[in-house]
Amino acid sequence: MSISERYWRLSLYEMDAALGHHPLIAPELAPPPVKLYPDAARHQLASRIPRRLEAAGPSNVDTLSTLLYYTYGYGRADVTATDLTLHRLVPSARCLYPAELYVWVPPDDSTPAGLHYYDPAHHSLVTLRPGIDSSMLASAVPADLAGAAYVLVVTALFWKVAHRYGDYGYRLCTQEVGVVVGNVLAVAAAMGLRGHVHHQFVDEPVRRWLDLTAGEESPMVLVPLYSSRDSSRECVHPTVNGSSVDAAGPIWRRSSPLDQRVCAPFLELDAASRFTTTTQIASPPERGPQRPAGHAVSTPPAPADEPIADLVAALRGRASGPAYFNASGLPVPAEVLWCVCRYAQSPHVSDAAAPGQLAVGMMVAVNRVTGVAPGSYAVLPDGALEQVRAGPVADPLARAAGHPFTVNFETANVVVSIVGDPAATAHWLGDRGYRVLNAEAGIVAQRVCLASAAAGLVARPYNSYRAEAVAELLGISGTGLVPIFQIAVGRPRVTGTVSLPMAP
To answer: Which of 89, 137, 243, 277 has a C-alpha 20 to 30 A away from that of 335?
Structure first.
């Protein structure tokens, strides 16, 4: 087995053994929710955030403030009789948020140019490299950055999640990087910006540019943002390897170091996945993952309106439900399912898929949807469904659940499975395919969450399932496809939790 094959087996088929069931360190030593740069210069971003997203004008501090807040800021506090939990505007396992967000800003009269870390706790920019241009970045990533409004870089700070989940943490890190990237694309599009997703780049110069601690935090995805009016821009291969980068000035403070022994399996994979030269960058296959054949289901024509009319309301309304996901059990109309599927299957510009394609597929196990018979369905590129297997899904999903058992499948309306082909992805990406496929699954998962929230539903991303049993239920056993990520969707039930909105 290759390194990535071993980790696929560990994180998909040996999950119960790999999953850390108790924190590995004392709670007071757990990593803080954001990186701390006590000696760095800061730029406070605007405290007044617009309630609607509109096409942005010229780059300025207000535009950047809005973009970063709705991408990865704090949106609400949930209060129960025994706990207080702060939620950002994206889901995260136990709200640990291992993804970190950095932004490069080109020179501008009203925006601090250079490289910054986004501190969501204080809604501010921590300046790492003031005034720096994009020449080094352009030498490591296959993108024409001339004219980019911003370049966002999403990294994974492994110990933030591994201190709780052990060597299983890499799966969560790579998925949550994708969730954040999915939110970047959604927010940017609502602001008139077009994001290009780059999984393929030369890692070491980007790591040094960001001044990340080697072996503890890795750059995962780069997303340059361009004006939507500039639709002709294409990816270009870099010709220079800008590997010589001085260390940045500000030093971040950590509460405890990553446990190299516990995290050894995924650290080995992370090291093996790095590109050291631009010759490793490869073009994706012309076709995405092949879905199982099924029987077409009659679906209404796509509506003329956008599936999410008010993205801000969807972002603020998005919720994963309580610790034990127990929906009301009331059915939802078929039109809601069509809307979620169409929005989630929208293609984006990514170096992991050919134009107009997605690197991952999507299947749904329908349980309580008016007008759609219970069963397993493949979602086609246009959001239409094909029934692969008929019959009840709640009991098979419950039998496929791993530990811990966190979802009441009997009351869930739909369970979405993001599927991919690890072997096919590794064929052209090597060991890097693991992180790429999980991140692409996270992008689609965030779309499912947002479309569900727009329809007044709660959506719980989770990994607690046995992959073989889920593949059997979905009818994909033996096809090369595996379920990478699942999202349970249902109507909310009244609980004792008090949700308090948050703003900068």
So the answer is: 89
